[in-house]
Amino acid sequence: MARVHNFNAGPAGLPLPALERAQRELLDFEGTGMSIMEHSHRGKAFEAVHNEAISLLRQLLGLSDDYHVLFMQGGAAMQFAVVPMNLLPPGRSADYILTGGWSEKALEEAKRVGTVRVAGSTAVDKRYTRIPHQGELSLDPNAAYVHMTTNNTLFGTQWHWLPDTGDVPLVADMSSDILWRKMDISRFALVYAGAQKNIGPSGITVVLARKDLVDSARKDIPVIFRYATYAANNSLYNTPPTFAIYLMRNVLAYTLEIGGLEEVERRNRKKGELLYETIDAHPDVFRAPVEKESRSFMNVVFRLASEEMEKRFVAEAAKEGMVGLAGHRSTGGIRVSIYNAVPVASVERLTAFMRDFAKRG
Amino acid sequence: MARVHNFNAGPAGLPLPALERAQRELLDFEGTGMSIMEHSHRGKAFEAVHNEAISLLRQLLGLSDDYHVLFMQGGAAMQFAVVPMNLLPPGRSADYILTGGWSEKALEEAKRVGTVRVAGSTAVDKRYTRIPHQGELSLDPNAAYVHMTTNNTLFGTQWHWLPDTGDVPLVADMSSDILWRKMDISRFALVYAGAQKNIGPSGITVVLARKDLVDSARKDIPVIFRYATYAANNSLYNTPPTFAIYLMRNVLAYTLEIGGLEEVERRNRKKGELLYETIDAHPDVFRAPVEKESRSFMNVVFRLASEEMEKRFVAEAAKEGMVGLAGHRSTGGIRVSIYNAVPVASVERLTAFMRDFAKRG
Ligand SMILES: Cc1ncc(COP(=O)(O)O)c(C=O)c1O
Ligand SMILES: Cc1ncc(COP(=O)(O)O)c(C=O)c1O
Ligand SMILES: [Mg+2]
Ligand SMILES: [Mg+2]
Ligand SMILES: [Mg+2]
Ligand SMILES: [Mg+2]
């Protein structure tokens, strides 16, 4: 079958050239007579891939030497626990800003580790349709850190500004918009992201951590959960998920090849604009619940007149090779995830379908 | 290049048919128009693979319904912490039997979680050349559990009997010999293993856990570390490492195809016997430090007269397409890892080389 238009929320579509490269050398990596999966994580062949993935991340982001690039396992949900285990000592408290289901989960998990506070929330009836303003936040100047979720995968909202937290370290879950455009990482003390939306397959989690924060992190937790362990061992303390790192390397190399994050941003803005324009042009058929200034360029969420109509929309789109459009099971509606690897052409195809669907009513 | 003879200690070689299957369908999984990596972990296509991997493990092992099969991330080294986090409540103590470097690491990590005891150790000058006898163990009848390592990857020893722990749950790190032959898992309360030696690529950890143990495990730890979370959600609480699970499925399906664990054991015994016979036939050149009844059928360890000679052995073998023979950086010497995927023919090739090397002196 021809490749479909993949709007999955994560694991998501990957750039075809990154997959083709993997396919080509799956049985024989660079003439070594084995798959990259069969190489030792302590051998030269894998270590070169590993280090290239790290330096590509540094280069694409323009990351300063004040930061470690760490590779971990366990997904972003494991970071919900690992962040407070490292950064929240007894007697301190951490601030959480709630903007969606994932920030709620991060808060709930942190509660099992230490003392937390809600420093702001835009929930109305358990739904989130906007990002808060600075004036709505009540930040604790003594907090160990402030936690935020830069893009809210379920509700389709995204921060287009960053909160001022003064001297308090800002920690961000960037799982669903890391590398969606150039970002000033120096605004954050720590960033974490599961790779499976914008930069790779599932099974690998990227952590960008300011070195001083890692140095002063808690040492009374198991070694395997300490950021310092990964920092001291170039993320090779134990066996890493070698193939996931390899494939992420392929994705990052391809990202650089097409022009880096400037080009990525241009494409992502184009895709988002196409979709929101189409939604706004048919207010009788499509309704976007999210306030305009909080709209996400990664997950575009909208509703139709009824759940029945939404089901029909998803089914008819699937027939035409567009998959992954059903909203999250907890929210319903339609969700179009347009991560970095989704081609502009796929969104053009979808918006054409939407216009036609609207016409037919 | 032709595929090499891969004696890597882990990540290790994989069965060629399992890799070829992955290569064939890497861009289009079963006519769905996407890679298995691009499928949602909540979609039908992936869930079928996931459930097949679980049932293949059940079938190959003849596992009873009293056990959960859980898939986790983080490697075996994460289980060093997760086991005591779940199974070692405050006020209790756990027994550790030391038979190598990995059991030492498991002990050290458990110390950071709770109270532990060494219930036996065969270390002499920090080296291990044998498995203890029952009479050498001093087991605490009130221990929360007893921890053992069934195969000692670094030192090349393997348990060929199991300790009697009475009513105390027996927990085993089976990372380097899981599925090397049929085993009676009912002797264990919990088994864990990183997949990257016998059953798949790195990035996926298998846990076999008795249901009653999971039910009574600690609930005052983060959700992401509770075995109960994985048990309640079919290991889909958060995004699993989908490609690693898929590839493990391919390996397990191939294992069944060639005749299951009876055939696997036949091949593994053959490989081990070939190697030990060759070593024993040339006592002037090769010296196996491990006592005969403790010899491992997964990692065959031996020394040559000098480090220089060992270097020459490794270098000459590499020239003839045999790789991965250098011992672990902490032990030195030669280590031949002959996990399930290593063909008998590769060992025949190696033993011919050894005989020739011995002749040349
Ligand atoms: C913003 C955000 N955080 C966390 C997660 C959880 O990630 P994982 O499944 O890798 O644990 C997701 C997954 O969709 C997400 O979108
Ligand atoms: C017996 C044993 N336990 C644990 C480990 C550590 O596994 P991982 O690197 O997956 O954490 C290894 C790795 O070689 C091993 O052989
Ligand atoms: Mg999701
Ligand atoms: Mg959310
Ligand atoms: Mg090892
Ligand atoms: Mg060992």
Secondary structure topology:
2 copies of one chain form a homodimer.
Chain A: E1 5-6, H1 16-24, H2 44-61, E2 67-72, H3 75-87, E3 93-98, H4 101-111, E4 115-121, E5 123-124, E6 127-128, E7 146-149, E8 151-152, E9 157-158, E10 170-173, E11 190-194, E12 205-210, H5 211-215, H6 227-232, H7 242-257, H8 260-281, E13 299-302, H9 307-319, E14 322-323, E15 334-337, H10 344-360
Parallel strand pairs in A: 1-14, 3-4, 3-7, 7-10, 10-11
Antiparallel strand pairs in A: 2-12, 5-6, 8-9, 11-12, 13-15
The complex binds pyridoxal-5'-phosphate (2 copies) and magnesium ion (4 copies).
One magnesium ion is lined by residues 100-102, 152-155 of chain A.
Please give a quick description of this structure.
Two copies of one chain form a homodimer. Chain A has 361 residues and is an alpha/beta fold.
Give structural notes:
The structure is a homodimer of 361-residue chains. Chain A is of the alpha/beta class and 361 residues long. Chain A folds into 2 domains: 17-257, 3-Layer(aba) Sandwich (Aspartate Aminotransferase, domain 2), CATH 3.40.640; 261-360, Aspartate Aminotransferase, domain 1. Helices cover 36% and strands 16% of the residues of chain A. Chain A is built from 10 helices and 15 strands. Chain A has a 7-stranded mixed sheet, with helices on both faces. Chain A has a two-stranded parallel ribbon with strand order 1-14. In chain A, helix 3 packs across helix 4. The longest helix of chain A is centred in the C-terminal third of the chain and has 22 residues, at 260-281. The radius of gyration of chain A is 21 Å and the shape is globular. Chain A starts with a strand and ends with a helix. At the A-B interface, helix 1, helix 3 and helix 7 of A face helix 1, helix 3 and helix 7 of B.
